Amino acid sequence: MKNIAFGQYYPARSPLHALDARMKVILAILYIVCTFLCKNVFCFGALLASALLLVLCSRVPLRIILRSLRPVLFILLFTAVLNVFLTGGETELFGFWRLHVYVEGVYHAAFMMVRIVVLILTTSLFLTYTTTPIALTDAIESLLTPLRWLHVPVHEFAMMMTIALRFIPTLTEETYKIMSAQKARGVDFSHGGLIRRARALIPILIPLVVSSFRRADELAMAMECRCYRGGKGRTKMTVPHLHVYDLFALLLVVAFGAGIVWLNRQGYGYTMPR
Amino acid sequence: MATVALDHVTYIYGAGTPYEIKALDDVSLTVKSGTITGIIGHTGSGKSTMVQLLNGLEKPLSGKILLDGEDIWAKPKEMQKIRFRVGLVMQYPEYQLFEETVRADIAFGPKNMGLSDEEIEARVKDAAAFVGLDETLLNVSPFDLSGGQKRRAAIAGVMAMRPEVLVLDEPAAGLDPRGRDGILAGIRNYAAATGSTVIVVSHSMEDMAAFCDEIIVLAHAKVFLSGTRDEVFSHADALSSVGLDVPQITHLMSALRRRGLDVPEGIYTVEAAKEALRPLLE
Q1: Which of A4, A123, B198, B235 sits between 20 and 30 A of B183, alpha carbons compared?
Q2: How far is B206 from B40, CA to CA, in rounded Å?
Q3: DSSP E strand stretches across chain A
Q4: Angle between the A202-225 and A154-184 helix axes, to the nearest 10 degrees?
Q5: Residue B18 pLDDT class (50, 70, 90 cuts)
Q6: Rounded mean pLDDT of A224-240?
Q7: Helix, strand, or coil here: B193?
Q8: ipTM of the complex, rounded to two decimals
Q9: Given this model, what pLDDT does residue B16 score?
């Protein structure tokens, strides 16, 4: 319960930390596009190399970044196994019973793994490790501003996100406290069947919901006391500016994408089907 | 009637990470059976950690927690039994109320003990009486009570388990003076009626002075001072060196003494001060 890894901003001074948060959101999206553009071994090689380069640039220890991959490890292995056995091809590596493994299958599985790993690595690098949650929601609000023309309540949406993120650690702590209190009254969470364990959750969930409402009430009151009235006419304390290096980073990633497209044309070895 | 003791207990938060914090450092102490013992300390002195160690919510990194001389971690599977013997009231216990009625909430602990319905009913009534909760309030939803009443109901919920050792973490925090006095009186009632050992954690010297037989002062993860109330409060200088203070009334009395008024030393409560000053006025 204490090890919930979420919004794990890693404070450091690095080129990635210095980038404008809005640019990081855009770069993350471009990077996702890049991972899906990759088709052959050169592309995936370049992709993996670039992701590692980004990790180096971010100055976040690799150990901490790898931790974010732990929850998807199972999915990773599962897709790899499925891909190895279910991809058809021409050159058979080996086979037994009804299962056949082709060279293409191995390639395909490896490519999929690289794709998923890079996807998670880069998005978490851009959006969580090097960007504070506040900067991120501000960036999203700023990027979605054009939607205001369609009467989408962009500011309210961003505020809701900020508050939700802000309260995750608070509620985690609260849950832990209530659990301790009920354990002290003899609730047993670790024994008994499924139904008994589910019933043991009632004394946790009710106080938790009640206190969430209480907190929400208090927060709403505090915000109103400070004359909060939504996004209309609201100015920001820190107005973000795009710098030259933000544009440079954009240029780099776009160039990288172009490079991927060019590498795809080289048509070497196994190429992933469309 | 049980003795609680800590035997060379060390507890470290985040052990093995760069962020580790030593909450308790090789602490040994004994809480005498049948006393009301206060644990005082500044924020971060290890008080709250200590209470969670006493009923096995947390496990010490090294050392033993002894209940009547037996290590409570000897049989981890029977920890539930230990928790019925060492009742813990956490900080702001009113946030743990959840049942439909106050009666059901107070009965929650005894029900987990597997007691008979008559026994549970009797215990609920007793516990409500200890804390001064009116019997008509037993059928009300706990969420409709006032802040002070909620606190009383929550404390009654632990008292109803009739623990041999009742541990309370800041039971009077955030209450007005009347609410605070009511809670402290309730705890005293419980101790008097059952003869249980009571351990109260607080940083209010006034409460401690009015309430405790014995006092243990924690500072920098170690036991800094311990002894009877009068012994501990006679070390005013030592207390102030760790950011604690003797009660304000004691300051007033020593100021009066410096000005030449003939008042005795060792006065820690307003009541005692009243007694000492009355003859001078008459």
Answers
A1: B235
A2: 11
A3: 92-96, 99-102
A4: 140
A5: low
A6: 81
A7: helix
A8: 0.86
A9: 67
Coil, strand, or helix at residue A116?
helix
Domain B33-61+77-245 fold = Rossmann fold (3.40.50)
In a domain, A175, yes or no: yes
Specify if A240 maps to a domain.
yes
Rounded distance between C-alpha atoms, residue B158 and residue B85, angstroms: 11
- B170, amino acid identity: E
Q: Which helix (H) or strand (E) covers residue B237, if one does?
A: helix B236-241
Q: Examine residue A84 and state whether it is found in any structural domain, yes or no.
A: yes
**Of residues B57, B98, B143, nearest to A184 (C-beta):** B57
Q: Is B10 within 8 Å of B93 (Cβ atoms)?
A: no
Sign of CA dihedral B187, B152, B47, B64: positive
CA distance B157 to chain A (A): 8
Whether residue A107 lies inside any domain: the answer is: yes
Whole-Å CA distances, A265 to A31, A42, A106, A115, A118: 19, 11, 21, 19, 22
Give the count of alpha carbons within 13 A of A257, CB side only.
Answer: 17
Helix (H) or strand (E) holding A65: helix A62-67
What is the pLDDT at residue A182?
92
For the cut 50, the answer to whether the pLDDT of residue B239 exceeds it is: yes
Query: Using CA atoms in the order B203, B208, B211, B213, what is the torsion angle rounded to 10 degrees?
Result: 120
Q: How confident is the model at residue A7 (pLDDT cuts 50, 70, 90)?
A: low
Give yes or no for B162 touching A (CB within 8 A). Answer: no
Give helix then strand counts, H and E, for chain A: 11, 2
Task: Tell me how many domains chain A contains.
Answer: 1
Neighbours of B209 (CB within 10 A): 24
Residue numbers of the domain that contains A69:
15-265
pLDDT tens figures, A53-110 = 888 888 888 888 887 788 888 888 998 888 888 877 777 777 777 777 888 888 888 8
* Per-residue model confidence as pLDDT tens digits over B84-93: 999 999 999 9
If interface means Cβ-Cβ distance under 8 Å, which residues of chain A face chain B?
Answer: 174, 177-178, 180-188, 202-203, 206-207, 210-211
Q: Against a cut of 0.90, is the pTM above it?
A: no
Degrees, nearest 5: CA angle B42-B48-B50:
110
Q: Do B158 and A184 touch (CB under 8 A)?
A: yes
